[in-house]
Amino acid sequence: MPSARRPSLSPTRTRPTSTPRTSRTAHRPRLALHRRTAPVVDTPADAAAAASTPRPRNATLAALGVRNLRLYVASQVLTNTSGWAARVAQDWLVLSLTGSAALVGLTVTLQFVPMLALGLVGGVVADRYSRRRLLMVTQSVFGLSTVALAVLALTGHIQAWHVLVAAFVGGLATVFDNPARQAFVHEIAGPQHLRQAISINSAVFQLGGLVGPAVAGALIVAVGEGWTFALNGVACFAAVGLLVAMRVAELTPAPVVARAKGQLREGLAYVRRSPRILWSVVLAGFVAITGVNMATVLASFTDQVFVADAGGYALLTSMLAVGALSGALLSTRRRSSRITHLVLLAATIGVVQLVAALAPTRPVFIVLLIAMGLATLLYLTGSNTLVQTTVAPHLRGRVMALYVLVLLGAQGVSGTLIGWVCEHLGARAGMVACGVGPLLGALVVGLALARRSDAGVRGTVRRFTARETLRPAHEVAPAA
């Protein structure tokens, strides 16, 4: 028979009945476990899969161990690099045929106008239909349009209006390709490799924008515009073949969104209610409006400051790509992305560009270009990762469509803006203008986050004070 427990004579040791010993001790291991593991998940099923998967020593190599992801990355390397090369070849061909810079600008406008007008619609379509099949269709359209240009150019029948029509068709395909491609990453990688897959995909996309123009310059000089178009067509059809070769059974099923009214407004309202996504999109617009379009300002530096030829321009572009490649390698090793990190990276981009505007010699300018490429790639991959790992799965296509719309739309405006500054005020003034956008964005978003954080702290203090004031006297714990 167990002995009776003697009551304590000290009133200060009496425990309140509302807080038993077992409830507090049982809660501690949960807190410790929560601090150790913070997987990126979208649903309870994803949470269970992420929890049951051990963290590998090299998460990037583990992600590339997924067969479907390897096929997808290979397709993106082909299409992004050759696609950017084909766009540069289009612009150069129009200039060669007509000698009109205005028609070159019209070619660029026709590539971006469909995205500005229908970009959000492309996100709705990406949420309703199979993203893998959408990518097959869009890559086929890209391939057919560029193969047509290749045939016309190689046979000597090419005219300027042919290039303009092809640019518009490519812009229409981009409307549906971009959101589907961004959202398809989750289906390929699954929850356990999602962050690394997003970083790899973002790095490949941004590297294509930096390396593609350099490849275009070499191809145009070596074999001409026609074979540059033909190469892009082959790459697009190869990408379709890689998508077909994927194992559908190994894809993570995406939520099926039935056709309904108000789905576009639903996506916009979701972004407005999600501060992390909202401020990430706003900051991306500030950075892209001047900070990431380096082609025009580097051409001006080559011609006005360093007085070099096309080889000098290729050298500067290559150094920017070297920095971007370094940033891509670093981004795949990063485990988390925060909005405060993005603000600091945007400020870094702006500061490096302001310093580069004052560079006295070309070697100093090259070092700053490498730093610029590294910071820009880290920012772009971090921003994309933050948005994709925060958004709800059934809204991923619509939210990514808005993000891409802001990013590419701002870049479209950037070319005209920076070109005007370089032409009228000089190359160094153009580089200063490049730094204004990222710095202004870091200032605006940083102040907004600081005000939000300060308001949250004040609200917490007020709620705590009110709760302590309203508690009955017998519930207040005595002082030690």
From TrEMBL:
Alphabetically ordered keywords of this record: Cell membrane, Membrane, Transmembrane, Transmembrane helix, Transport
Membrane spanning stretches: 101-122, 134-154, 160-176, 197-223, 229-249, 277-298, 310-330, 342-359, 365-387, 399-421, 427-450
Topological relation to the membrane, as annotated: Multi-pass membrane protein
A single cellular component GO annotation: plasma membrane
Subcellular location: Cell membrane
Molecular functions per Gene Ontology: transmembrane transporter activity
Region of interest (Disordered), ranges: 1-54
Bias-annotated ranges (Low complexity): 1-23, 38-51
Protein name: MFS transporter
Compositionally biased intervals (Basic residues): 24-37
Main location as per UniProt: membrane
Major facilitator superfamily (MFS) profile domain: residues covered: 60-453
Entry-linked InterPro entries: MFS_dom, MFS_trans_sf, TM_effector
Keyword Transmembrane: yes
PANTHER family: INTEGRAL MEMBRANE EFFLUX PROTEIN-RELATED, STAPHYLOFERRIN A TRANSPORTER
Superkingdom field: Bacteria
